[in-house]
Specification:
about 425 residues, about 10% strand, single chain, Beta-Lactamase, Arc Repressor Mutant, subunit A, 3 domains, 19 helices, alpha+beta
Length: about 425
Amino acid sequence: MREETFDLQLAKECARSFSGACGVGCTVTDASGQCLFECGYGCVTCRVCHIAGRSKANCTKTHLYGMTEAVRFGGKYIYSGPMGLTCFVSPILGDGSVAAKLTVGPFLMVERRDYIAYDLEECGKLRGEPLQRVIRELDNIPYFPPERVTEMSNLLFMAVGFMNNVSAAERMRNIQGNDAIQGQITAYIQEIKHSREQPPYPFETEGKLLRAVRQMNKPEAQRLLNELLGHILFSSGGDIERIKPRLYELLVLIGRTAIEAGADPDETLRINHHYLVQMDQSRDFDALCGWLAQECNTLMDSIFDFTGVRHTNVIHKSIQYLNTHYREKITLEDVARWVYLSPAYFSRVFKAEMGESFTAYLNRIRIEHSKELLRHKSIRLTDIALLVGFEEQSYFTKVFKKLVGVPPLQYRNSKD
Protein backbone atom coordinates (compact mmCIF):
# COMPACT_ATOMS: atom_id res chain seq x y z
CA MET A 1 0.00 0.00 0.00
CA ARG A 2 1.29 3.42 -0.97
CA GLU A 3 2.41 5.55 1.98
CA GLU A 4 0.75 8.96 1.86
CA THR A 5 2.98 12.00 2.38
CA PHE A 6 0.04 14.10 3.56
CA ASP A 7 -2.88 13.70 5.95
CA LEU A 8 -5.39 11.85 3.76
CA GLN A 9 -7.98 11.63 6.51
CA LEU A 10 -7.90 15.39 6.99
CA ALA A 11 -8.17 15.87 3.23
CA LYS A 12 -11.24 13.59 3.15
CA GLU A 13 -12.88 15.58 5.96
CA CYS A 14 -12.14 18.81 4.13
CA ALA A 15 -13.67 17.47 0.89
CA ARG A 16 -16.73 16.15 2.71
CA SER A 17 -17.34 19.44 4.54
CA PHE A 18 -16.78 21.57 1.44
CA SER A 19 -19.13 19.44 -0.66
CA GLY A 20 -21.82 19.48 2.00
CA ALA A 21 -21.58 23.23 2.61
CA CYS A 22 -21.44 24.35 -1.03
CA GLY A 23 -23.54 21.66 -2.74
CA VAL A 24 -20.94 20.61 -5.28
CA GLY A 25 -18.73 17.57 -5.81
CA CYS A 26 -15.28 17.52 -4.20
CA THR A 27 -12.51 15.04 -5.07
CA VAL A 28 -9.14 14.21 -3.52
CA THR A 29 -6.64 12.85 -6.03
CA ASP A 30 -2.94 12.12 -5.84
CA ALA A 31 -0.30 13.95 -7.87
CA SER A 32 -0.77 11.56 -10.82
CA GLY A 33 -4.54 12.12 -10.96
CA GLN A 34 -5.67 8.89 -9.28
CA CYS A 35 -8.81 9.35 -7.20
CA LEU A 36 -8.34 8.78 -3.46
CA PHE A 37 -11.75 10.01 -2.29
CA GLU A 38 -14.80 11.69 -3.75
CA CYS A 39 -17.81 13.26 -2.08
CA GLY A 40 -20.83 14.32 -4.11
CA TYR A 41 -21.04 14.50 -7.88
CA GLY A 42 -17.36 14.88 -8.80
CA CYS A 43 -15.34 14.17 -11.92
CA VAL A 44 -15.13 10.43 -11.21
CA THR A 45 -18.90 10.18 -10.92
CA CYS A 46 -19.59 12.51 -13.86
CA ARG A 47 -20.82 10.69 -16.98
CA VAL A 48 -20.99 13.64 -19.39
CA CYS A 49 -17.80 12.70 -21.27
CA HIS A 50 -18.84 9.04 -21.51
CA ILE A 51 -22.32 9.87 -22.84
CA ALA A 52 -20.87 12.34 -25.35
CA GLY A 53 -18.35 9.75 -26.56
CA ARG A 54 -15.33 11.63 -25.26
CA SER A 55 -12.28 10.05 -23.64
CA LYS A 56 -12.03 10.35 -19.87
CA ALA A 57 -8.27 10.72 -20.34
CA ASN A 58 -8.82 14.24 -21.62
CA CYS A 59 -10.45 15.15 -18.30
CA THR A 60 -7.52 13.69 -16.36
CA LYS A 61 -5.02 15.72 -18.42
CA THR A 62 -7.06 18.88 -17.87
CA HIS A 63 -7.18 18.32 -14.11
CA LEU A 64 -3.42 17.76 -13.95
CA TYR A 65 -2.94 20.95 -15.96
CA GLY A 66 -5.22 22.74 -13.48
CA MET A 67 -3.07 21.55 -10.58
CA THR A 68 0.10 22.76 -12.31
CA GLU A 69 -1.45 26.17 -12.91
CA ALA A 70 -2.69 26.33 -9.30
CA VAL A 71 0.88 25.91 -8.11
CA ARG A 72 2.06 28.55 -10.57
CA PHE A 73 -0.64 31.04 -9.58
CA GLY A 74 -0.13 30.69 -5.84
CA GLY A 75 -2.44 27.91 -4.69
CA LYS A 76 -5.71 28.09 -6.61
CA TYR A 77 -6.92 27.91 -10.20
CA ILE A 78 -10.27 27.88 -11.99
CA TYR A 79 -10.51 26.17 -15.37
CA SER A 80 -12.83 24.59 -17.92
CA GLY A 81 -12.80 20.90 -18.83
CA PRO A 82 -13.03 19.33 -22.31
CA MET A 83 -16.85 19.46 -22.23
CA GLY A 84 -16.97 23.08 -21.06
CA LEU A 85 -17.81 22.30 -17.44
CA THR A 86 -15.87 24.23 -14.81
CA CYS A 87 -13.72 23.11 -11.87
CA PHE A 88 -11.29 24.73 -9.47
CA VAL A 89 -8.41 23.18 -7.58
CA SER A 90 -5.93 23.75 -4.78
CA PRO A 91 -2.78 21.62 -4.33
CA ILE A 92 -2.06 19.68 -1.12
CA LEU A 93 1.59 19.77 -0.10
CA GLY A 94 3.53 16.76 1.12
CA ASP A 95 7.22 16.58 1.97
CA GLY A 96 8.26 19.74 0.19
CA SER A 97 6.28 19.12 -2.99
CA VAL A 98 2.74 18.67 -4.30
CA ALA A 99 1.44 15.34 -3.00
CA ALA A 100 -2.22 15.60 -3.99
CA LYS A 101 -4.96 18.02 -4.93
CA LEU A 102 -8.47 18.86 -3.91
CA THR A 103 -10.71 19.52 -6.93
CA VAL A 104 -14.18 21.05 -6.78
CA GLY A 105 -16.58 20.41 -9.66
CA PRO A 106 -17.83 19.90 -12.22
CA PHE A 107 -20.32 22.77 -12.26
CA LEU A 108 -21.77 25.25 -14.73
CA MET A 109 -20.59 28.84 -14.72
CA VAL A 110 -22.90 29.88 -17.57
CA GLU A 111 -26.65 29.52 -17.77
CA ARG A 112 -27.79 25.98 -18.55
CA ARG A 113 -29.51 26.95 -21.81
CA ASP A 114 -26.36 28.75 -23.03
CA TYR A 115 -24.23 25.72 -22.15
CA ILE A 116 -26.52 23.40 -24.11
CA ALA A 117 -26.67 25.68 -27.15
CA TYR A 118 -22.97 26.48 -27.30
CA ASP A 119 -20.86 23.78 -25.61
CA LEU A 120 -23.02 20.78 -26.45
CA GLU A 121 -24.70 21.62 -29.78
CA GLU A 122 -22.31 24.15 -31.37
CA CYS A 123 -18.92 22.87 -30.15
CA GLY A 124 -19.73 19.29 -29.19
CA LYS A 125 -21.89 18.64 -32.27
CA LEU A 126 -24.25 16.56 -30.11
CA ARG A 127 -27.63 15.70 -31.57
CA GLY A 128 -30.53 13.35 -30.88
CA GLU A 129 -30.42 10.84 -28.06
CA PRO A 130 -26.81 11.54 -26.91
CA LEU A 131 -27.70 15.22 -26.53
CA GLN A 132 -30.84 14.41 -24.54
CA ARG A 133 -28.92 12.03 -22.28
CA VAL A 134 -26.29 14.66 -21.52
CA ILE A 135 -29.05 17.21 -20.80
CA ARG A 136 -30.60 14.79 -18.32
CA GLU A 137 -27.18 14.30 -16.72
CA LEU A 138 -26.97 18.08 -16.19
CA ASP A 139 -29.63 17.70 -13.48
CA ASN A 140 -26.74 16.53 -11.25
CA ILE A 141 -24.55 19.52 -12.05
CA PRO A 142 -25.13 22.83 -10.21
CA TYR A 143 -24.81 26.34 -11.62
CA PHE A 144 -22.84 29.05 -9.82
CA PRO A 145 -22.36 32.67 -11.00
CA PRO A 146 -18.72 33.80 -11.43
CA GLU A 147 -18.68 35.92 -8.27
CA ARG A 148 -19.73 32.95 -6.13
CA VAL A 149 -17.13 30.73 -7.82
CA THR A 150 -14.46 33.24 -6.81
CA GLU A 151 -15.57 33.11 -3.18
CA MET A 152 -15.74 29.30 -3.15
CA SER A 153 -12.28 29.10 -4.71
CA ASN A 154 -10.94 31.41 -2.00
CA LEU A 155 -12.62 29.27 0.65
CA LEU A 156 -11.04 26.09 -0.72
CA PHE A 157 -7.65 27.80 -0.83
CA MET A 158 -7.95 28.72 2.85
CA ALA A 159 -9.18 25.24 3.82
CA VAL A 160 -6.30 23.55 2.00
CA GLY A 161 -3.97 26.18 3.41
CA PHE A 162 -4.89 24.94 6.89
CA MET A 163 -3.85 21.44 5.90
CA ASN A 164 -0.64 22.75 4.39
CA ASN A 165 0.04 24.75 7.54
CA VAL A 166 0.84 27.77 5.42
CA SER A 167 -0.16 30.42 7.92
CA ALA A 168 3.17 30.36 9.77
CA ALA A 169 5.12 30.30 6.50
CA GLU A 170 3.05 33.20 5.17
CA ARG A 171 3.76 35.28 8.24
CA MET A 172 7.47 34.65 7.81
CA ARG A 173 7.26 35.60 4.14
CA ASN A 174 5.49 38.84 4.99
CA ILE A 175 8.07 39.71 7.65
CA GLN A 176 10.92 39.04 5.24
CA GLY A 177 9.15 40.94 2.47
CA ASN A 178 8.43 43.94 4.68
CA ASP A 179 12.05 44.06 5.87
CA ALA A 180 13.23 43.95 2.25
CA ILE A 181 10.86 46.76 1.26
CA GLN A 182 11.91 48.93 4.19
CA GLY A 183 15.54 48.25 3.34
CA GLN A 184 15.07 49.29 -0.27
CA ILE A 185 13.21 52.47 0.67
CA THR A 186 15.83 53.34 3.29
CA ALA A 187 18.69 52.74 0.84
CA TYR A 188 17.05 55.02 -1.72
CA ILE A 189 16.53 57.75 0.89
CA GLN A 190 20.20 57.51 1.90
CA GLU A 191 21.19 57.78 -1.75
CA ILE A 192 19.26 61.00 -2.36
CA LYS A 193 20.37 62.41 1.01
CA HIS A 194 23.96 62.42 -0.26
CA SER A 195 23.02 64.36 -3.36
CA ARG A 196 24.16 67.98 -3.46
CA GLU A 197 20.63 69.19 -4.02
CA GLN A 198 17.21 67.71 -3.57
CA PRO A 199 16.25 65.97 -6.81
CA PRO A 200 12.96 66.85 -8.51
CA TYR A 201 10.08 64.41 -8.49
CA PRO A 202 11.18 61.43 -10.66
CA PHE A 203 8.47 61.48 -13.33
CA GLU A 204 10.62 59.14 -15.44
CA THR A 205 10.54 56.54 -12.65
CA GLU A 206 6.78 57.01 -12.35
CA GLY A 207 6.41 56.38 -16.08
CA LYS A 208 8.52 53.21 -15.83
CA LEU A 209 6.37 52.02 -12.93
CA LEU A 210 3.16 52.42 -14.92
CA ARG A 211 4.71 50.58 -17.89
CA ALA A 212 5.69 47.72 -15.57
CA VAL A 213 2.08 47.54 -14.33
CA ARG A 214 0.78 47.44 -17.94
CA GLN A 215 3.25 44.67 -18.77
CA MET A 216 2.34 42.63 -15.65
CA ASN A 217 5.97 42.80 -14.47
CA LYS A 218 5.40 42.58 -10.73
CA PRO A 219 9.07 42.50 -9.47
CA GLU A 220 9.98 45.57 -11.53
CA ALA A 221 6.78 47.38 -10.52
CA GLN A 222 7.52 46.65 -6.86
CA ARG A 223 11.08 47.97 -7.15
CA LEU A 224 10.03 51.18 -8.89
CA LEU A 225 7.18 51.74 -6.44
CA ASN A 226 9.64 51.50 -3.55
CA GLU A 227 11.86 54.11 -5.20
CA LEU A 228 8.94 56.49 -5.56
CA LEU A 229 7.90 55.89 -1.94
CA GLY A 230 11.43 56.69 -0.81
CA HIS A 231 11.43 59.95 -2.75
CA ILE A 232 8.01 60.98 -1.40
CA LEU A 233 8.98 60.23 2.19
CA PHE A 234 12.28 62.11 1.88
CA SER A 235 11.03 65.17 0.00
CA SER A 236 8.08 65.67 2.37
CA GLY A 237 10.42 66.32 5.29
CA GLY A 238 8.38 64.00 7.50
CA ASP A 239 5.24 66.12 7.14
CA ILE A 240 2.53 63.48 7.18
CA GLU A 241 -0.12 65.79 5.76
CA ARG A 242 2.07 66.40 2.70
CA ILE A 243 2.78 62.71 2.28
CA LYS A 244 -0.84 61.49 2.25
CA PRO A 245 -2.15 63.27 -0.91
CA ARG A 246 0.98 62.39 -2.90
CA LEU A 247 0.71 58.75 -1.92
CA TYR A 248 -2.96 58.59 -2.79
CA GLU A 249 -2.34 60.28 -6.16
CA LEU A 250 0.26 57.62 -6.92
CA LEU A 251 -2.12 54.82 -5.91
CA VAL A 252 -4.85 56.24 -8.18
CA LEU A 253 -2.43 56.33 -11.13
CA ILE A 254 -1.41 52.73 -10.51
CA GLY A 255 -5.04 51.67 -10.19
CA ARG A 256 -6.13 53.34 -13.42
CA THR A 257 -3.21 51.81 -15.29
CA ALA A 258 -4.07 48.38 -13.90
CA ILE A 259 -7.69 48.76 -15.05
CA GLU A 260 -6.49 49.67 -18.56
CA ALA A 261 -4.34 46.51 -18.51
CA GLY A 262 -7.32 44.33 -17.60
CA ALA A 263 -7.75 44.51 -13.82
CA ASP A 264 -11.25 44.32 -12.39
CA PRO A 265 -12.46 47.96 -12.13
CA ASP A 266 -14.71 47.48 -9.09
CA GLU A 267 -12.09 45.57 -7.12
CA THR A 268 -9.33 48.05 -7.98
CA LEU A 269 -11.47 51.03 -6.96
CA ARG A 270 -12.37 49.24 -3.72
CA ILE A 271 -8.68 48.71 -2.94
CA ASN A 272 -7.90 52.38 -3.59
CA HIS A 273 -10.73 53.50 -1.32
CA HIS A 274 -9.52 51.13 1.40
CA TYR A 275 -6.03 52.64 1.29
CA LEU A 276 -7.40 56.19 1.34
CA VAL A 277 -9.30 55.41 4.54
CA GLN A 278 -6.23 53.81 6.12
CA MET A 279 -3.99 56.73 5.22
CA ASP A 280 -6.51 59.25 6.50
CA GLN A 281 -6.47 57.51 9.88
CA SER A 282 -2.65 57.68 10.17
CA ARG A 283 -1.45 60.41 12.49
CA ASP A 284 2.15 59.37 13.07
CA PHE A 285 5.00 59.42 10.52
CA ASP A 286 6.66 56.24 11.81
CA ALA A 287 3.33 54.41 11.86
CA LEU A 288 2.66 55.49 8.27
CA CYS A 289 6.08 54.24 7.16
CA GLY A 290 5.40 50.90 8.82
CA TRP A 291 2.01 50.70 7.15
CA LEU A 292 3.60 51.42 3.77
CA ALA A 293 6.13 48.62 4.19
CA GLN A 294 3.38 46.18 5.16
CA GLU A 295 0.91 47.15 2.44
CA CYS A 296 3.21 47.50 -0.59
CA ASN A 297 3.20 43.76 -1.25
CA THR A 298 -0.53 43.56 -0.58
CA LEU A 299 -1.14 46.33 -3.09
CA MET A 300 0.89 44.63 -5.79
CA ASP A 301 -0.67 41.22 -5.07
CA SER A 302 -4.14 42.75 -5.37
CA ILE A 303 -3.38 44.55 -8.63
CA PHE A 304 -1.80 41.50 -10.26
CA ASP A 305 -4.37 39.01 -8.96
CA PHE A 306 -6.26 38.39 -12.20
CA THR A 307 -8.09 35.25 -11.15
CA GLY A 308 -8.79 32.22 -13.32
CA VAL A 309 -12.52 32.81 -13.04
CA ARG A 310 -12.20 36.16 -14.79
CA HIS A 311 -10.17 34.55 -17.57
CA THR A 312 -12.61 31.67 -17.90
CA ASN A 313 -15.57 34.02 -18.24
CA VAL A 314 -13.74 36.25 -20.73
CA ILE A 315 -12.72 33.31 -22.93
CA HIS A 316 -16.22 31.81 -22.88
CA LYS A 317 -17.82 35.13 -23.88
CA SER A 318 -15.25 35.78 -26.61
CA ILE A 319 -15.68 32.30 -28.14
CA GLN A 320 -19.45 32.73 -28.10
CA TYR A 321 -18.99 36.04 -29.91
CA LEU A 322 -16.70 34.49 -32.53
CA ASN A 323 -19.06 31.60 -33.22
CA THR A 324 -21.94 34.05 -33.68
CA HIS A 325 -20.13 36.67 -35.78
CA TYR A 326 -17.48 34.68 -37.67
CA ARG A 327 -19.15 35.58 -41.00
CA GLU A 328 -18.52 39.27 -40.35
CA LYS A 329 -15.34 41.32 -40.44
CA ILE A 330 -14.10 40.77 -36.88
CA THR A 331 -11.02 42.33 -35.33
CA LEU A 332 -9.30 41.57 -32.06
CA GLU A 333 -10.24 45.09 -30.94
CA ASP A 334 -13.94 44.33 -31.53
CA VAL A 335 -13.89 41.26 -29.27
CA ALA A 336 -11.69 42.94 -26.63
CA ARG A 337 -14.26 45.74 -26.46
CA TRP A 338 -17.02 43.13 -26.11
CA VAL A 339 -15.38 41.59 -23.02
CA TYR A 340 -14.25 44.98 -21.59
CA LEU A 341 -10.49 44.43 -21.84
CA SER A 342 -7.73 46.34 -23.57
CA PRO A 343 -6.70 44.71 -26.88
CA ALA A 344 -3.14 44.01 -25.68
CA TYR A 345 -4.26 42.32 -22.47
CA PHE A 346 -7.05 40.38 -24.19
CA SER A 347 -4.56 39.11 -26.78
CA ARG A 348 -2.25 37.79 -24.05
CA VAL A 349 -5.08 36.17 -22.09
CA PHE A 350 -6.58 34.56 -25.20
CA LYS A 351 -3.30 33.02 -26.33
CA ALA A 352 -2.41 31.83 -22.82
CA GLU A 353 -5.80 30.17 -22.29
CA MET A 354 -6.42 28.81 -25.81
CA GLY A 355 -2.87 27.93 -26.83
CA GLU A 356 -3.06 29.86 -30.10
CA SER A 357 -3.48 33.43 -31.28
CA PHE A 358 -6.83 35.14 -31.74
CA THR A 359 -6.42 35.18 -35.55
CA ALA A 360 -5.46 31.49 -35.71
CA TYR A 361 -8.49 30.50 -33.65
CA LEU A 362 -10.87 32.64 -35.73
CA ASN A 363 -9.48 31.18 -38.96
CA ARG A 364 -9.99 27.67 -37.62
CA ILE A 365 -13.66 28.40 -36.84
CA ARG A 366 -14.18 29.79 -40.34
CA ILE A 367 -12.50 26.82 -42.01
CA GLU A 368 -14.61 24.34 -40.02
CA HIS A 369 -17.79 26.07 -41.22
CA SER A 370 -16.49 26.18 -44.79
CA LYS A 371 -16.18 22.37 -44.80
CA GLU A 372 -19.94 22.06 -44.44
CA LEU A 373 -20.54 24.47 -47.31
CA LEU A 374 -18.04 22.67 -49.55
CA ARG A 375 -20.30 19.62 -49.51
CA HIS A 376 -22.77 21.63 -51.61
CA LYS A 377 -21.22 21.75 -55.08
CA SER A 378 -23.65 24.40 -56.24
CA ILE A 379 -21.93 27.00 -54.04
CA ARG A 380 -18.88 28.61 -55.65
CA LEU A 381 -15.60 28.82 -53.75
CA THR A 382 -15.70 32.61 -53.97
CA ASP A 383 -19.11 32.64 -52.30
CA ILE A 384 -18.02 30.16 -49.62
CA ALA A 385 -15.06 32.35 -48.75
CA LEU A 386 -17.35 35.35 -48.28
CA LEU A 387 -19.96 33.35 -46.36
CA VAL A 388 -17.45 32.31 -43.69
CA GLY A 389 -15.83 35.72 -43.30
CA PHE A 390 -12.88 35.75 -45.73
CA GLU A 391 -12.73 38.81 -47.96
CA GLU A 392 -10.58 37.12 -50.62
CA GLN A 393 -10.80 33.61 -52.08
CA SER A 394 -7.01 33.42 -52.43
CA TYR A 395 -6.52 33.97 -48.68
CA PHE A 396 -9.30 31.50 -47.91
CA THR A 397 -7.58 28.87 -50.07
CA LYS A 398 -4.22 29.53 -48.42
CA VAL A 399 -5.62 29.20 -44.89
CA PHE A 400 -7.71 26.14 -45.81
CA LYS A 401 -4.70 24.29 -47.22
CA LYS A 402 -2.59 25.19 -44.19
CA LEU A 403 -5.16 23.86 -41.70
CA VAL A 404 -6.65 20.94 -43.65
CA GLY A 405 -3.64 19.87 -45.71
CA VAL A 406 -5.33 20.11 -49.13
CA PRO A 407 -6.91 22.97 -51.14
CA PRO A 408 -10.69 23.45 -50.73
CA LEU A 409 -11.49 22.15 -54.24
CA GLN A 410 -9.57 18.93 -53.63
CA TYR A 411 -11.33 18.55 -50.28
CA ARG A 412 -14.71 18.96 -52.02
CA ASN A 413 -13.89 16.33 -54.63
CA SER A 414 -12.72 13.89 -51.96
CA LYS A 415 -16.22 13.95 -50.44
CA ASP A 416 -17.90 12.45 -53.52
